[in-house]
Amino acid sequence: MKFKTPYSKPVFTEKRLRNTLEFMCWIKPPVLVTGKRTEFEPHLEDYFGEKFRYTAFDLNDEWDDMEATSFNTILCFQVIEHLLNPLLFLQMCKRYLDEDGLLYISYPLHNFKAFWTSGHFHEYDKSRFHYLVKESGFKIVDYKERIMWRRIKGIRPIVRNTPLGWCKHQYYCLKKLDGKDVM
Q1: How far from 1 is each of 58, 82, 84, CA to CA, in Å?
Q2: Which of 71, 122, 127, 176 has the fewest CB atoms within 10 Å around its CB?
Q3: Predicted structure pTM score
């Protein structure tokens, strides 16, 4: 099942690229990008000097179309909130991630439910996302939060660009739990 949303195309800005690169300091090839290639990823590929691999299947299902390969890095930018079963998605990421590999995830965090986007199946506050991470067998290695400025079109976006309605990008770096980690 494919789900279209009016917000499906990430907006490329130099500031967003700088924020993302600053956070992704431990990236190692081979890299898998979940979701379709956007205008953002070629800039990352140029920076890291590596061609990324992209998923070409429905992320709501098991990843049966993947050949038996593993990745040192998996990128999931603004995807997880659009999925029907985010727990299955994270379990699939875990299956194809190397033992010391890293999973980078970003998603929007809205302060109030009134600002949640109808194009998202799931909206996460920090505690719900941390629970999802724990249940899927990952631990949080690094975390950053950035305010996401939106173009102003109408009343709702004007309120979103105030402290009352700020939408923040949540950047997480996740690693598989090992036997020594306590759940």
Answers
A1: 7, 11, 9
A2: 127
A3: 0.79
